[in-house]
Amino acid sequence: MNERNERIHGVACTFRNVSDVFHAAEKVRDAGWKNWDVHTPFPIHGMDQAMGLPRSPVPRLTLLGGITGFITGCLLTWYMNSYDYPLIVGGKPYWSVIFPFPVIYECTILFAAFGTFFGQFIFNRLPHHHHPLFDLPQFSRVSDDTFMIVLEARDPRFHLDDSRNFLLSLGGQEITVIRA
Amino acid sequence: MAHAHDSSQERPAILDRVRPAELPRSPLILNNRGFHWITDKVCGIVEEPTPLWWKVMFVAALFVASFTFIGLGYLVSTGTGTWGLRSPVGWGWAIVNFVFWVGIGHAGTLISAILCLLRQKWRTSINRAAEAMTIFAVMCAGLFPLFHVGRVWFAWWLFPIPNQNGIWPQFRSPLEWDVFAVSTYFTVSTLFWYMGMIPDLGAIRDRATTWWRKAFYSLLAMGWRGGNRQWSNFEMAYLLLAGLSTPLVLSVHTIVSFDFAVSNVPGWHTTIFPPYFVAGAIFSGFAMVLTLMLPLRAIYRLHDVINQYHIDNMCKIILATGTMVGYAYATEFFIAAYSGNSFEKFAFVNRAFGQYAWAYWIMVSCNVITPQLFWFKKVRENHSLVWIICLFVNVGMWFERFVITITSLANDYLPSSWGYYSPTIVDIFTFFGTFGFFSVLFLLFVRFLPLLPMAEVKMVTPQADPHAH
Q: Do the domain assignments include residue B469?
């Protein structure tokens, strides 16, 4: 067949309701697939377990951001009010962690939020404007009311005909080959 | 599935014996609307041809907004004397308006962050619009302290940037804390708002028919594909931002109250200020959410998504926070009487019976008495009345800030330095114009961005549960 010779991204199939796609995902997970995904209009409760996904790594960057923010806040206030231009106010110490605490607190939150926000982009590999999925006509319904399982060609288990039949056995409706 | 099975095994034996009544929860989406209906409804607002009411409102809002910009232009070109500020009242309407607008913003963050952590599913219907309200309200708020510094072209001295004098900001000042609190609040709220919008922008992109719409929403949606691997990170980031915004929003109005509480002026120097300001902020913010959402609900026929249950909940929050504010007013009086400090006692007697008694009683009647009507179901179900009560709350909360700021400054320690403050026409026009500025931004949001978080609303429908058959 001609399509075997083209570069293939994977095989997609659509599902009409949450329960079907959820149980199909469990079967894909149990079959031992690694490079695959379930595209849904909204996050489905429990889908991470159904797919066997590990916990999201975003909190690591949040923590890193928070620590950076706290240190930045401390250094900022210490350098400016105590080191570079010491200010005497009310005979108090030039610097302590107490008086500029609101500033340090806000810096901690700000940098932790940056860590979280950019962490989401980094771990989701966004922005990503060109993707083979966007060429699929039925993909435009995935943000509306359709659910889609995509098995990717880079998975060692991938074999075009077998994978198609596997998706058929899961109860998928429209099965399409995605060209890279 | 294994998950659900485990939890049923862990069910305490007592529950089988007493058989607790299964009370039906109020449906969040009426008429059993499906996913496609939600997408059509929300995307339809952006996709329809610009309605006439929008054009009329937009032109009107631009006209009103011009009052602020002409007012500020006149202030800068002529001098700060054009505002009614003079000794002893150096903080006039500018600070009142600043606190008023920042307070409005707090409801948006409460809905998007605190109610998210508390798993209040009803928040999803109003979340996006309330967050937009937060951001635009903070923009209006920011204008006032910026111009209140007098020489606005030196406002960048507030930021920790080296200036020609070689002097840095002084971090012992609550006003400097405010700079950090409000700018962090604005930044984090915007990040949170935008990140939550990405999947919905993707949905509008996928339906786009014209090239400019496709290009515009593709750019904003960042290539979102809705894969569960993406959702997993997205939901984690959303939860973390909610967790970060919660202490942030509480700290912002706390720090705003420090502007007053850290000083030694009678009536300001009290420890009740932070919780009292935060409760007041949420109170006024929810009133503003209802003021905005009730007309939008009627215009766009969103009755199934924003139903009586949502309105009831918001009214009850207004009732609860309004009562807290009333309690705080009473506590202030008690503490003043109990303190044995004659200046403190005078400050409060003067508020209620002095030269600004008219403002005090407007405040009490709007903030303490009006929201009590929300005890009655009949009132909560009469949406015109709800809307009017919310306007009263907005007026009352503006007067609260007026009473706090002005009465304490106008009559402090030395009777020889007392005075009576009144605003000038420039003050009034500048404040009036901010409603136009806010409306311009909010109308643009309604027209071009998804008004309701589609993904989140779909998530709370019964058919989104993978274990329901």
A: no
Query: Cβ contacts (< 8 Å) between A63 and chain B: which residues?
Result: none
- Whether B334 is covered by a domain: the verdict is yes
pLDDT reported for residue B23? 81
- Chain A residue with Cα closest to B170: A81
Residue A39 contacts B where some CB pair is shorter than 8 Å: yes
Q: Kindly report, residue by residue over A160-174, the tens digit of the pLDDT.
A: 999 999 999 998 888
In terms of Cα–Cα distance, which of B290, B98, B112, B84 is closest to B193?
Answer: B112
What's residue B10's pLDDT? 66
Nearest-by-CA chain B residue for A106: B181
Element (H, E) at B185: helix B174-207
Does the beta-carbon distance from A109 to B228 stay under 8 Å?
no
Domain annotation covers residue B163: no
Residues of chain B with pLDDT under 70: 1-10, 469
* Chain CA centroid to CA B183, Å: 15
Of A19, A81, A116, the CB nearest to B466: A19
The distance in angstroms from the start CA to the end CA of chain A is 17
Above pLDDT 90, what percent of chain A?
77
Expressed as residue numbers, the domain containing B67 is 26-154+168-464
Q: How far apart are CA B309 and CA B122, in angstroms?
A: 8
Cβ–Cβ of A41/B226 closer than 8 Å? yes
- pLDDT for res B469: 53
In a domain, B6, yes or no: no
Q: From chain B, pick out residues whose CB is under 8 angstroms from the CB of A107.
A: 180, 184
Tell me how far apart the alpha carbons of residues A61 and A114 are, in angstroms, rounded to a whole number.
Answer: 9
Distance from CA of B239 to the nearest CA of A (A): 10
What is this structure's pTM?
0.93
pLDDT for position B4: 41
* Residue A74 pLDDT exceeds 70: yes
Q: How many CB pairs under 8 A join A and B?
A: 216
How many angstroms separate the CA atoms of A53 and A19, rounded?
Answer: 18
pLDDT digits (tens, 9 = 90+) for B129-146: 999 999 999 999 999 999
Q: What is the ipTM of this complex?
A: 0.94
pLDDT in tens, B273-314: 999 999 999 999 999 999 999 999 999 999 999 999 999 999
The alpha carbon dihedral of B36, B42, B43, B45 has a sign of positive
Contacts for B255 with CB less than 8 Å, ≥ 6 apart = A102, B174, B177, B178, B181
| Count of domains observed in chain B | 1
- The answer to whether the beta carbons of residues B119 and B162 sit under 8 Å apart is no
- DSSP secondary structure letters along A96-132: -SSTTHHHHHHHHHHHHHHHHHHHHHHHTT------G
How confident is the model at residue B5, as a pLDDT?
A: 43
d(CA B15, CA B156): 63
- Return the residue in A143, A149, A151, A178 with the most chain B beta carbons within 10 A, the one to mutate for interface testing: A143
